[in-house]
Amino acid sequence: MSARTIIDKIWDAHQVRAETAETPGILYVDLHLIHEVTTPQAFTELRERGLAVRCPPRVLATLDHSTPTLPADASGQRPYATREAEHQVHQLEANCREFGIELNGWDSAHRGIVHVMGPELGATQPGMTIVCGDSHTATHGAFGALAFGIGTTEVGHVLATQCLLQRKPKSFAIHVDGHLRAGVSAKDLILHVIGVIGVGGGTGHVLEYRGSAIEALSMEQRMTVCNMSIEAGARAGLIAPDEKTFAFLEGRPRAPHGDDWLRALEYWRSLASDAGARYDSEVRIDAADIGPTVTSGTHPGMVTPISAAIPLARDAQEARALAYMRFAGGESIVGEKVDVVFVGSCTNSRLSDLREAASILRGRKVADGVRMLIVPGSVRIKLEAEAEGLDAVFTAAGAEWRDAGCSMCIGMNGDIAQPGQLVVSTSNRNFEGRQGPGARTVLASPVVAAVAAVSGCIADPAAFLEHAA
Amino acid sequence: MTPLSTVRSRTATLPFENVDTDRIIPARFLTTTERAGLGRYAFNDWRYLADGSDNPDFPLNRPEANGCAIVVAGRNFGCGSSREHAPWALLDYGIKAVISSEIADIFRSNALKNGLLAIVVGDAEHRELLASPGLDLVIDIAERTIALPDGRRWTFALDGFARHCLLNGVDQLGFLLDAESEIAHFETRAAEHRFSLENAS
User: Fold this and answer.
1) What is the three-class DSSP state of A332?
2) What residues of B are in contact with residue A54 (Cβ under 8 Å)?
3) Does the pLDDT of residue A92 top 90, yes or no?
4) Given a cut of 90, is residue B201 above it in pLDDT?
5) Residue B197: its pLDDT value, please?
6) Contacts of A431 in chain B (CB under 8 A)
7) ipTM at complex level
8) Contacts of residue A26, Cβ cutoff 8 Å, sequence gap at least 6
């Protein structure tokens, strides 16, 4: 057999029926993650057609998007943004009961952002096909899984048949070689990559991140990178599994155990792309070229190194985006006054992200006039952070320490910014109004976000730390 | 899904690149558990001013866009979130086809499954359509052509299966359900050879 990429290997292993010129292939789905927002209409369809969920053990549910991040009151009532949001959450609870699906709901220590929950449980494993009605499903690609977002109609397809109709996507190798400079994070890396290939540069492709700089990343950092694949338009993004992947998974509740674990390792070790495998597209990036990077426009492809001038608008679209952001091309983004700082989301809400934010906030105060929200990715992360005292660091600094959920990344639960406010956010989308009507978003790493919170304006972490030392 | 063979309409243009699904329907309207009735939220924060009145600067609010079922949009339309509420909202708002030089993958897949034509044309054709709003077009799904008022016909690419489903109103779920024995066979085979399927629970 000719040399194959990891994408080929996973695809081949899940083909129930190969595609032809006239019909797409049938692809088997190993793990289907669901949440309250993109599933109710799919369950309605099943009910109307008298269909069962074909394989309930392959479906795993949680509550994350519409959920409040403030606690329930004394009577147990949670502060939902609207009655409709509350109804949506109750609807998923009812659907899971009716169809026999495991729900990590309000009483579960694993409730949290769906893309944080899967890896935390060890449900996310190398070589799997994983889907979710959520475009950030590529997060699971960090484990060498082929993971992608689907719409609600397809959620219904997978619930009823455990399969999807698919044509094979193209492959795109993103080689990042060399060493990241000190103080440069996975978030900076992926923002840089999106800036290079463009916001639609990955359309029709699955990205495989490769090279020494990728291998050097921790699993949490790899999740940050793969998470934002969709922001370059890619169907998915993944990284070949290695010893770090296996060490992360070993012993987790849903990971294989005993002899299964040994067989799993053998299989997982066969997944990496073969030497000489061909890709439809390739790009090479030198890790040393990457500095702390933020967005300056209204899509994740408009990025700028924090130490450089904001790029001049190349066309009317970019001019309009800069005008919305109230930024001027050719000027520095450093010094822009910040109103809100958000640390959280499926991109950057894991324990290492919280530790990075805490390293800046420890012994310092959030600047006057700045509101800072810190939202852990799961209940478990919240407990772990509190066990090492991070919550005390955050609250002493004047930040709000919330319950797990998507929160201000998507603003469905009422955690939003006000019109015109500038938000420095560790999330994944800086679209107009994403974090509230009229809100302006700058995407950044947890360190850049925390530095902005204490500075009251966007600041270069290197200069900040030098000044602080 | 109702069978769909042609879309005839004047075009309206939305000459902006990277119109994301948050712009098509903001997230705060996704708490619904229904598919119906989302048209009133289509482009909500662009289409209405803060006081709830129509924004005269939103291209589809202009009098000449009234009744246009074909929208010609800038490159990379529908990027971002996988929310199927985006095509649901557009259809309910009266849009039957979106034409661009590039349409985001998940949006396109969602759109076609709901009978919203998402058509990708070449850069030259795209520029021409954007430059001249108000063209009366006839989109023929069987022929995969766009007929222009001057008699020219452009062809466009459309997956054969998507075309078949649109023309016949075929339900893709029905197609998958018909493959049940193959799926069951695959599961048996996979369980013999691959650990990972056995460890899902």
Assistant:
1) strand
2) 183
3) yes
4) no
5) 43
6) 20, 22-23, 80
7) 0.95
8) A15, A16, A17, A163, A164, A165, A166, B176, B179, B182, B183
Distance CA A93, CA A105 (A): 8
Strand ranges in A65-157 using DSSP code E only, listed in sequence order: 102-104, 129-132, 146-149
pLDDT higher than 90, residue A320? yes
**CA distances for B145 relative to A295, B141, B158, angstroms:** 40, 7, 10
Q: What is the pLDDT of residues A238-295, one digit of tens each?
A: 999 999 999 999 999 999 999 999 999 999 999 999 999 999 999 999 999 999 999 9
Amino acid A273: pLDDT: 98
Contact present, A205 and A174 (Cβ < 8 Å)? no
Residue A69 parent element (H or E): none
The beta-carbon neighbor of A203 closest among B26, B102, B182 is B102
A398 contacts A372 by C-beta, under 8 angstroms: yes
Residue written as tokens 């390293």?
A: A359
What pLDDT is stored for residue B183 in this prediction?
97
Q: Which residue has the tokens 């082929």?
A: A146
Tokens for B57? 């600067």
- Cα three-residue angle B103-A232-A415, rounded to 5 degrees: 95
- Per-residue pLDDT at B151 exceeds 60: yes
In the structure encoding, which two tokens stand for residue A137, read together?
A: 């499903």
- Chain B nearest-CA distance from A296, in A, is 15
- Which tokens hold the place of A178? 């060399």
**CA torsion B45→B48→B50→B51, rounded to 10°?**
-150
Are the Cβ atoms of A24 and B177 closer than 8 angstroms? no
For the cut 80, the answer to whether the pLDDT of residue A65 exceeds it is: yes
Q: How far apart are CA B10 and CA B55, in angstroms?
A: 21
**Residue A26 Cα distances to A239, A253, B171, B173, B184, angstroms:** 24, 30, 15, 12, 12
- Residues comprising chain A, all counted: 469
Per-residue pLDDT at A199:
94
Read off the tokens for B188: 């048996």
Cβ contact A200–B113 (<8 Å)? no
Q: What pLDDT shows up at residue A468?
A: 80
Q: What Rg, from alpha-carbon coordinates, does chain B have?
A: 19
Write out the two tokens for B95. 């849009």
Give the model's pLDDT for residue B2.
Answer: 87
* DSSP label at residue A366: P
Would you state the structure tokens that stand for residue A298, as one six-digit string? 């209204």
Q: What separation, in Å, do the N-terminal and C-terminal C-alpha atoms of chain A show?
A: 58
**Rounded Cα gap, residues B144 and B140, in angstroms:** 6
Neighbour-count burial of A189, counting CB atoms closer than 10 A to its CB (0-12 exposed, 13-18 middle, 19+ buried): buried
Query: B71, exposed or middle or buried, with CB in 10 Å at 0-12, 13-18, 19+?
Result: buried
Is B193's pLDDT higher than 80?
A: no
